[in-house]
Amino acid sequence: MRKALVGMAVVAMALLAGRVFADDSSAGSSPAASNSNDMHQGMNMNSASPAGKSMKCEVIDVACYIQKGAHGEAHQACAAKCISGGGELALLYNGKLYIPVDKDYHSARDQFVTKGGEMVTVTGTTVSKSGLNYMIVSEPAPAASANTTSAN
Questions:
Q1: Domain range list for the chain
Q2: What does the alpha-carbon distance between residue 129 and residue 134 come to, in Å, rounded to a whole number?
Q3: Dist. CA 41–CA 28, nearest whole Å
Q4: H or E stretch including 119?
Q5: Helix (H, G, I), strand (E, B) or coil at 48
Q6: Which one-letter DSSP state was computed for residue 107?
Q7: Strand pairing of 132-139 and 96-101?
Q8: Which of 93, 94, 71 is nearest to 83 (CA)?
Q9: 42 contacts: CB under 8 Å, gap ≥ 6
Q10: Under a CB-based contact definition with an 8 Å cutoff, are residues 98 and 84 in contact?
Q11: Mind listing the pLDDT tens digit of every residue in the chain (152 residues)?
């Protein structure tokens, strides 16, 4: 009798697990999901406005900035060396760090890796959630220029 109850419980759990997995797989086949290999299926990843604004930011080396507060012209050579060597980078704007990403929230690091320690004007939209700040880059950063201005 006890074996029969255990067997029935196992079968019930297997049926329940199958039902849960079936619900998960059908949720990914919604009309919003366009690519079956996309890890963000069914999510609205474009909730921010596409145009955004232009911001004049410094491309900083996160480690030196967090540990020592290092940034600016005096730290430019070190930032360029650390970032080009694989160090994490961020965009510093008005005392806030922004992680540069594309419209799908994939890293936009490649656009900035050669600009370590430089001031760049970036056009895009800012999004903040749970203490993280993102810059959704809509236009690639141009070469640094002394005449670059910001339109906030």
A1: 1-44, 53-139
A2: 9
A3: 6
A4: strand 119-129
A5: coil
A6: B
A7: parallel
A8: 71
A9: 27, 28, 30, 32, 33
A10: no
A11: 666 666 566 655 555 545 544 444 444 444 444 444 455 454 444 444 446 789 999 999 999 999 999 999 899 999 999 999 999 999 999 999 999 999 999 999 999 999 999 999 999 999 999 999 999 998 765 554 443 433 33
